[in-house]
Specification:
Elements (H helix, E strand, L loop, with lengths): L9 E6 L2 E6 L10 H16 L5 E6 L3 E3 L4 H10 L20 E5 L2 E3 L1 H7 L3 E5 L3 E3 L13 H9 L1 H10 L3 E2 H7 L4 E3 L4 H15 L2 H14 L4 H15 L3 H12 L25
Parallel strand pairs: 2-3, 3-5, 4-6, 5-7, 6-8, 7-10
Antiparallel strand pairs: 1-2, 8-9
Helix pairs in contact: 4-5, 8-9
């Protein structure tokens, strides 16, 4: 007997080159557990390796994006003392996917839910979205690399406030501090996210987006000289590729470019972040 879509903790749909990944435990605020984690990373792997998928959207069913760890799982951790994730993928795995990952943050994103949201490349938030680190209120630490990503988005002082206080941040404040890229009305969130993904698919080279994503995350921990040298090397590669010729031709002919899908060998980006429990 197979689970019905309503019973699955995570749903996927591919349409128009976009894979939409939906956390599907609305009755529990899409709380995180080993089942949803395994399904999430498996969906990302499928998207990374599928030539049919050119962009990925991550969202939640119901009123929440992900309210954090499932209470039952947290009790198990408290009793066992083992906080290590059960997945063989690190929580920053979306950064290694060679395709744009767009967070459509529909509601509360707290604790591990905030981590999942921040490890997307671009975040579009509903005006009902809320954000909290929450860890200090459970006597925990900044888990799974959050202390690496958060200050790079909002700055060290704001990150300290958010980590120490665990206070809830509304969508507009999150926008003002750089945690999200855009805030839209709740009822139009998915339309806006799909339209953004569709624009990337229609106008941008998959190879270019993949290489620029690798530059972004590598250059966060590089010197300006290292970043400059990497850019020169990649620019030399880019002008020899068919995408460059197609882009020039499309511009001259005043039409949308027809870029090739990302090569399978480029499905993943080789980046290394500080090990904070993976």
């Amino acid at each position: 007997m197979t689970d019905s879509p309503a019973q699955l903790s995570l749903l996927t749909e591919i349409a128009g080159g976009i894979m939409t990944i939906t956390f599907n435990r609305p009755e529990r605020g899409n709380a995180w557990n080993p089942d949803i984690a395994g399904r999430y990373f498996a969906a990302l792997e499928l998207a990374a390796n599928s030539p049919e998928v050119r962009a990925i959207i991550v969202t939640g069913a119901g009123k929440a994006f992900c309210t954090g760890g499932d209470g039952t799982k947290l009790d198990e951790i408290a009793n066992s003392g083992d906080v290590r994730p059960t997945s063989n993928r690190p929580y920053w795995f979306p950064l290694q996917i060679g395709k744009p990952v767009i967070g459509a943050i529909n509601g509360a994103a707290a604790g591990i839910g905030l981590q999942i949201a921040l490890y997307t490349d671009v975040r579009i938030a509903s005006d009902k979205a809320r954000f909290s680190t929450f860890f200090a209120r459970l006597g925990l630490v900044a888990e799974m690399g959050l202390s690496w990503m958060l200050p790079r988005l909002v700055g060290a002082a704001r990150a300290a406030d958010l980590l120490f206080s665990g206070r809830m941040v509304g969508a507009e404040e999150a926008l003002a501090m750089g945690m999200v890229n855009q805030v839209v009305p709740a009822e139009s969130l998915m339309d806006e996210a799909r339209a953004y993904a569709a624009r990337l698919i229609e106008t941008s080279s998959p190879w270019s987006m993949r290489m620029m994503k690798s530059q972004l995350y590598a250059d966060l921990t590089s010197t300006v000289g290292e970043a400059y040298g990497r850019a020169i090397e990649l620019a030399d590669q880019s002008v020899l590729r068919g995408d460059f010729r197609e882009g020039l031709k499309a511009l001259a002919e005043k039409r949308m470019p027809r870029f090739d899908a990302l090569e399978p060998a480029l499905a993943y980006i080789d980046i290394t972040l500080p090990d904070q429990g993976s």
